[in-house]
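Reopening this ticket.

The earlier resolution said the output was attached, but the attachment link was broken on my side. Pasting everything inline this time so it's all in one place.
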Amino acid sequence: MSTIGVLASGRGSNCEALLQATRAGRLHGRVVLVLSDRPDAPVLEKARRQGVDARHLDPGRAGARLTPEAEAAYVAALREAGAEWVALAGFMRIVGKPLLGAFPERIVNIHPSLLPAFPGLEAQRQALEYGVQVAGCTVHFVNEGVDTGPIVMQTAVPVRRGDTVESLSLRILDQEHELYVRALNLLLSGRWRLEGRRVVAIDEEDGA
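Inline output:
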């Protein structure tokens, strides 16, 4: 069974969903470590209650990026735990070269919009302010940009009349929990290939 390290900064609902999916046999991988850049992140206690090693690692500075030294510490912790994949679950930092180099095409993120629309913070608010009729969520590979990596899977969520940021966010979050499991199962199976900026599932008939 493939092993996953999770990086998170907040409440950790997507991380919790992955842990629950593992217990239920729906996720074909196992979370071996949860790391957070915030010592008070609720995700740490949620993971510990599930028997998963969970730690705060100092990001080294405020802002969007870890220091190179801090990022090296994240890599060391993930490797020590035996993590083969890295899943970002509300990790509010931009991943840099140390992590990307240590886990090439093995770091994924989930974002609450249909990328490339509305990258970055407050994607749901951006969608409502723009007036779109369909929002959604995206699992994508992580690169050095902000939500710019190749797309693995997406799910659409209709925008309802009278939606608020809170109501739309909750409906998108429900879909995130399911989408992340499906996308990770595809990636962990190894039956996929990258075609341009898209991840394509390989059918048995392809023989590859």
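Reporter confirms the inline version is readable. The beta strands are 2-8, 29-36, 54-56, 85-88, 107-111, 134-141, 151-158, 192-195, 198-201. The chain has six helices and nine strands.
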